[in-house]
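Dear colleagues,

I hope this message finds you well. In preparation for our joint manuscript, I am sending the Globin domain-containing protein (Bambusicola thoracicus) sequence together with its predicted structure, so that both groups work from identical material. I would be grateful if you could confirm receipt.
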Amino acid sequence: MQDLESERISIWERISFFNKCWRHVLLFTISYSVGHHIHLCSMVPCVFGEEDAVMRNLEKESYRFIEQATAILKAIGNVINNFSSKPELSEALKDLELTHCPPGICGTEMAEEHFKVFNSALWSLIKYVLDKKMPHKYKFAFRSFTLDFKYTDVFEDDSVSSESCEVNSLSNWQKRIPTSEEEAAALKLQAVWRGTSVRKLLNSRKPGCTKENTAVKEILQTLWTSIELNFERCAVVLLREMFKKNCNSIKKFPCYEDERCKISFTDYAVTYSDQPPSTWFVVFREIFFVPEDMLIVPKMYTTIPSCRLHVIDNDTLEEIPQVFLKVAPHIYPKNKKGYTFMAEARTGDQSLAAGRWRLRLISSHSPLPFLSREAVNNIYSTKEIKEYYVPNDKCVMFRYSVKVTASHIATVQVQTSKSDVFIKLQVLDNEEEIVNVTGKGHAVIPAFNFLSNETLLSSR
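The corresponding structure tokens are as follows:
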């Protein structure tokens, strides 16, 4: 009885601790021969149930995160509304700094890095609100608001359109080394332009006494009107962009403690038909693109006794590491050709009834990996070859030449009647090995992109 009382106190202490963090996750594991009864007490609304019921609530931002995000965005709005009022603008800028800087970093070396993170997140918010359409006036308004002359992302679209340039005049400068007089003239022009630009920006920060300030105030007010239409969502976007930068200062926000229980996930489901005994088949194979470097945990939901998931980096053709035949949590870098998720299954001595298979991709934040096409496919064309193995000196079981009429991704699988045979399966291109796998009685290349003969000839 004393042990039960001490356990009850321990659980209550953990609940109290997580309540202070404004997000709590407790795992109850009950093992008893007769039965059990759980009585859960909480001072805040909570969800108790199976994994699916709990996980959907963990997608939401915590109350502390939303509170911090809205406070920062309100401070930004206060600066915009007082952009043409001299005493109020100074106070609003101080209030904004105290709001978006975590406690204890103002005036420290960490503050400089934090300001860069904030400016970057603010620029991302502006692009989000304007749907990535960035007229030059908004770029100027951003520089005026932040007085950040070094943030390079603002200049990414500032280059003059090639359509407005005379091709002939540009072609005269190609493959030409400028003279010392031309270099000096170019440097002088750059210095004059830089000085003019900086003076114009500084004038825009003089409240109420310059035309530049009046123009920037109107631009910022237009932007703020769009932000207010979806205020909470914009606030979350701003703070979430700051968190993505992994700056040390972000860890000092009180709401950072809630991040360990923040998840985002999406499900992809397919169905499979009846399968005869002793059969190998592909359940799922799709290409996903990763929008940014992120930690992903793939998880399968299936009733198939023997089912295994593979993930292939299409850029390197390397398979993501596995632990105990399961794909381990892994940081997926953004690449060009995406990642192929492929699930294989085998039936035993008995047939397998038709059923449903589901893949869940779990990460700490969104956006999650997205499909290379609109919907998943569960219909595959299969070509099966059965032959006898004739022993030979080179230990080669078979060798086939494949002619590809159209480029496509395929799965290659080899299985022997003798289960203890070690197999090495290779794909060669002009006798050069492209990819290989090894197995015992069974070997599979989860995904390989076979290029058509015409494509290969044109590339050569």
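For the figure legend, we might mention the following. Residues 1-21, 159-167 have pLDDT under 50 and may be disordered. The chain has eleven helices and 14 strands.

With kind regards,
E.M.
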